[in-house]
């Protein structure tokens, strides 16, 4: 449970940074199209002292026609999708105490509220 809390805290801290408007950030940032030749490739760049990693893939939060487009997605977004799956699995664990379930639900709700920021365009 401490790992889950640490991930959420790191996402909250990361969400306080605004991506740079430099030329590099304009080319690669959440929601910017990428070509099929770069599918599943990752790239890392540093802007204003913040190191970000992006993967060319389908945005897990996109809907409609946007869900079918390859775009650069921040690794925090992709890690968060794994977090959601893990938290949902934890909630059905019969060995979890009520206080642990409450804490897990709170963590899940917090991440779901941050999800649009972390996974959205312009992150």
Helix content: 40-55%
Q: Over all CA atoms, what is the radius of gyration? A: 16 Å
Strand percentage, roughly?
15-25%
Low-confidence parts:
11-26
Mean pLDDT: 77
Helices and strands: which structural class?
alpha+beta
Number of domains: 1
Kindly report the spatial arrangement of strands forming the biggest sheet: 1-2-3
- DSSP strand tally: 3
Structure description:
The protein has 123 residues and is of the alpha+beta class. The chain has one domain. The protein has helices at 2-15, 23-27, 75-91, 98-119, and strands at residues 42-47, 50-58, 70-74. The protein has a three-stranded antiparallel beta sheet with strand order 1-2-3. Strand 1 (42-47) and strand 2 form a beta hairpin. The protein is elongated and about 45 Å long.
In short:
The chain has 123 residues and is of the alpha+beta class. It has helices spanning 2-15, 23-27, 75-91, 98-119; strands at residues 42-47, 50-58, 70-74. The chain has one domain (18-119).
SSE order and pairing:
Layout: H1 2-15, H2 23-27, E1 42-47, E2 50-58, E3 70-74, H3 75-91, H4 98-119
Antiparallel strand pairs: 1-2, 2-3
Helix pairs in contact: 1-4, 3-4
List keywords for this structure.
single chain; 123 residues; alpha+beta; 3 strands; 47% helix; elongated
